[in-house]
Write a structure and sequence with these properties.
The chain has a single domain, classed as Dimeric alpha+beta barrel (Alpha-Beta Plaits). The radius of gyration is 16 Å and the shape is globular. The protein contains 7 helices and 8 strands. The chain has an 8-stranded antiparallel β-barrel with strand order 1-3-2-8-5-7-6-4. The chain is about 25% helix and about 30% strand. Strand 6 and strand 7 form a beta hairpin. With about 210 residues, it is α+β, with helices and mostly antiparallel strands.
Length: about 210
Amino acid sequence: MGASTHLGVPERRRHRLRRSLDFFVYSRDAPGTAALRADDALLEQHWAYMDGFAESMIARGPTLGTDRDTATGSLHIVGLQGVDAAHEFVAREPNHRAGVYAEHAVWRFENLLGRTMWEFSGAADEPRFLIIARSRRDESGRPARPGSLSPELRERLILYGALSSLQDGEPVGVALAVQARERDAVDALLDEGRVGLNAFRDVEIHDWDFGGRR
């Protein structure tokens, strides 16, 4: 659900997260697939599929166009049993099978906050944003530790984690989601938050929102 109040996480979910690896999956929509996105039957298939991963889900939700209504992609951060399971997670997903997505970016994810998006307690009426920053192969690609971030940024962090490659676990970047009053406030929040994104080669900032059944 798209609630922003603290819901708590069942103890069994915490145990399962510890036993698995976490994976960051960002799927970009293909052009001309808005009608597929609007199909209620496909949406139910997508939700039903994700229900099977509810206990190990860290975050989920669509990236959005500037109108904050048109979907441009989907984020899922989920605990799975390994790289093969991550590939299977993508391959079996109903939106993927229906042709909604043009491509997928899949990395290992180190959850530096140690919590899920459902434990974020920010205001429900402010927009949310997803930031993906990638480094060159010869760069360290390590994010700043949460304790070194500014208090204002930490208060607005929904998720924060290190990205690494699937095969060898080499650092490739950082991903975070924040809540802010508006898009312009995100740049100021990141610049003043000591997150160090200027060290990364590619930085994407997407309008984003919580996903799940509504």
